[in-house]
Specification:
CATH architecture of one domain: 3-Layer(bba) Sandwich
Largest sheet: 7 strands, mixed
Number of strands: 24
Distance between the termini: 45 Å
Structural class: alpha/beta
CATH class of one domain: Alpha Beta
CATH topology of one domain: FAD/NAD(P)-binding domain
Radius of gyration: 24 Å
CATH superfamily of one domain: FAD/NAD(P)-binding domain
Number of helices: 19
Bound molecules: flavin-adenine dinucleotide
Length: 671
């Protein structure tokens, strides 16, 4: 059989188009790839009978898979989750992800600062005076932020891994090896598995991935114009013509024909997760892989439940359990966790308002082998500090006994910069005409979009993104650093009630511009008090306060705004006006707009991984917390630099890697 080389593949890609999405449609019907049946191994536990082998704190993207993997390997694992495990349509229906992020059943609302300068903070139209900050949604529920995120599952850059390998001197982090963890966890349903698997997708893992059906946009003349006139022309001017398949890429009728008739026949470079694409870092339009299964959200929650059911007695999930302190012996070995049992105890939970902790029960849980901290980029540093691990001065200020003076805890906090460019369209978008963005009230008929979703298809089975573009903000950037995605909605970032917009406005189109690989590493998570129910202080120190001296991050976002403006100009007479930032906002005013209004939602890097020689490193390349024994961190906080465009795939991958090193250590210890 002739081997398809990367060069062949890219050649093929250059003359074809939109293929993966089409494959996706075909495969949604044929349901390729099945999850491996869950095998529950047996090991002889050496832990005392009143202890679990492992205690994992936090069930999100980092903690969920590691807890499940250790349980499958036969160990007794306790998974402490501060939230509950409620589930309603906001969880299951992908397009309701905005509502999920504001649903009190799941939400933890942080109010963060972008600037130390109080005047500057107030210039953000999303600023909430009584909180002195900007809403930063997180999820305090089983599955963590995978229970409300937008499900975008995009592979990071290989250089993200190679950099960790270089910094730590640990070759197991090299990008070739890291791909094996992705293959292990993915159950891809939009690519045909074949023997050679040059795409290096996984087909039998726990995370099901799909692509939205691109034919959904066909009835919508305005969207077709934006995508196939605006995007095609704007990209065609600066980059390779992205739509070469067509005789005339600007002929919408021809697109309709292709979309309707060529399903499943095309192969292309439209899958950002295909290994042959990943190694090449190309620019252009891409499909958006989503973590959905049969049209429903899927994530760590489903994985945890499946393993808990399949391996009885191995994975004990304790919800409404707010970890307050990690417990150590005299040798700094983590031996357990103290937690408060009770609902809505953490003050980021909107339901925490009236609750006092008097109804909560203080408990301890013992770990015979290890404690794994996976409480996320805000809570993991907070919990370390509450346990006496962090910068000495800060701990003393709050009367916390210093166990390990580790100055890097809570430092190096990073995020993307994102802004929305919102255009009012001439008419309501046809693709939304049958959608109320509400589940049916009891006893009522569902709207037509909801009925479609119940059959596993339609607008509600997507996350709303209709097109994604990856590009360099400036030609001199070493890698593509902008992910620009279009949504038929009004979205200017997060503020209380932000998710109502899709219900009220159907004549807006937003380009969300996401700046990846930001230079700013000046963010900080610091204690507000020694009370574990309080949220910490979070300050990202944006732009002027950042350590991006050359202000390259700002320049890149400006380029992104100008690029999407060009798309809209080239889209023909379907647009009425740019409402945000507004057509007249240019030059310095545009920079000011970006500084005021930018947001992020991939907080990370606040317990960075690094070599022992780096005084600011918190964990080593095996996730072990310096100065302690039997304590690891596995979540978004351990990255030294923020990876890729979307972070959750990288977190899933490190969770698989951590499982492997923890199990290897367990085996070595028991020999
Ligand atoms: C609105 C939104 C949309 C997003 N969309 C995407 C997307 O489409 N694609 C993408 O790649 N990324 C997305 N992200 C980011 C991504 O989902 C998160 O970065 C990722 O889930 C973080 O994983 P984690 O394990 O570090 O933390 P989390 O997933 O936040 O998990 C931490 C868990 O720890 C629990 N916890 C915290 N403190 C304690 C404690 N003291 N005791 C017990 N439990 C505790 C929390 O309740 C939570 O369940 C989105 C984020 C947001 C906010």
């Amino acid at each position: 059989m002739k081997r398809t080389t990367r060069r062949d593949f890219l050649k093929l890609a250059a003359v074809t188009s939109l293929a993966v999405s089409f494959d996706g449609c075909a495969l949604l019907k044929s349901r390729q790839g099945s999850p491996e049946p869950i095998h529950c191994a047996e090991v002889v536990s050496t832990s005392p009978s009143d202890a679990f082998d492992y205690v994992v704190i936090g069930s999100g993207a980092g903690g969920g898979p590691v807890a499940a993997n250790l349980a499958k390997a036969g160990y007794r694992v306790a998974l402490l989750e501060a939230g509950g495990d409620d589930e309603n349509a906001n969880y299951s229906v992908p397009v309701f992800h905005g509502s999920a992020s504001e649903d009190p059943a799941y939400s933890w609302d942080y109010f963060v600062k972008h600037y130390e300068d109080a005047d500057r903070r107030k210039r953000d139209s999303k600023y909430v005076p009584e909180k002195d900050g900007v809403l930063y949604p997180r999820a305090g529920t089983l599955g963590g932020c995978t229970a409300h995120n937008a499900m975008i599952t995009v592979y990071p850059h290989n250089s993200d891994w190679d950099r960790i390998a270089k910094v730590t001197g640990d070759a197991s982090w090299n990008s070739g090896n890291m791909r094996t963890y992705f293959e292990r966890l993915e159950r891809c349903q939009y690519v045909h598995p074949n023997r050679d698997n040059f795409s290096r997708h996984g087909f039998h893992g726990w995370l099901t991935t799909n692509m939205a059906d691109p034919r959904l946009v066909i009835p919508d003349k305005q969207l077709l114009a934006v995508i196939f006139l605006g995007v095609a022309k704007a990209l065609g001017e600066g980059l390779d013509q992205p739509f070469r398949l067509l005789k005339n890429p600007f002929d919408i009728q021809e697109w309709r024909t292709v979309l309707e008739e060529r399903e499943g026949l095309l192969k292309s470079h439209y899958d950002p997760n295909d290994w042959r694409i990943v190694v090449d870092n190309p620019q252009g339009t891409f499909g958006t892989p989503l973590a959905t299964d049969g049209g429903k959200r899927t994530g760590t929650r489903e994985h945890i439940r499946a393993v808990a059911n399949a391996c009885p007695g191995k994975l004990t999930v304790i919800t409404h359990a707010l970890a307050t302190r990690i417990l150590f012996d005299h040798d700094n070995r983590a031996i357990g966790v103290e937690y408060l049992q009770g609902k809505s105890l953490y003050r980021a939970d909107p339901r925490a308002k009236g609750t006092d902790a008097s109804g909560a029960v203080r408990r301890t849980i013992k770990a015979g082998k290890e404690v794994i901290l996976s409480a996320g980029a805000f809570n993991s540093p907070q919990l370390l500090k509450l346990s006496g691990i962090g910068p000495k001065g800060e701990l003393k200020k709050f009367g916390i006994e210093v166990r390990v003076d580790l100055p890097g805890v809570g430092e190096n906090l990073q995020d993307r910069y994102e802004v929305g460019v919102i255009t009012e369209m001439e008419h309501d978008l046809e693709v939304l005409s049958d959608c109320t963005f509400e589940p049916p009230a009891p006893g009522q008929q569902p709207d037509p979009c909801f009925s479609d979703w119940q059959k596993g298809k339609g607008v509600y089975a997507t996350n709303g993104v209709v097109v994604g573009i990856i590009k360099k903000s400036k030609s001199e950037r070493p890698l593509p650093d902008l992910y620009v995605f279009g949504v038929p909605s009004y979205f200017k970032g997060y503020f209380p009630t932000y998710s109502d917009a899709s219900r009220h406005h159907k004549n807006y189109f937003t380009w969300a511009i996401l700046k990846a690989h930001t230079n700013n590493t000046a963010g900080r998570v610091t204690l507000r008090s020694a009370d574990p129910r309080d949220v910490p202080e979070i300050n990202f120190h944006y732009f002027d306060e950042s350590n991006d001296q050359a202000q390259q991050d700002l320049e890149s976002v400006v380029e992104g705004v100008e690029f999407v403006r060009k798309i809209m100009r080239l889209s023909g007479p379907v647009t009425k006006q740019e409402v945000i930032p507004g057509e007249n906002i240019k030059g310095d005013q545009l920079k000011e707009f970006i500084k005021n209004e930018a947001w992020g939602h991939h907080a990370s890097c606040s317990n960075k991984m690094g070599p022992k020689s780096d005084p600011m490193a918190v964990v080593d390349s095996n996730f072990r917390v310096y100065g302690t024994k039997s304590l690891r961190i596995v979540d978004a906080s351990v990255f030294p630099r923020i990876p890729g465009f979307f972070i959750v795939t990288s977190i899933y991958m490190i969770s698989e890697k951590a499982s492997e090193v923890i199990l290897a250590d367990a085996t070595n210890q028991s020999v």
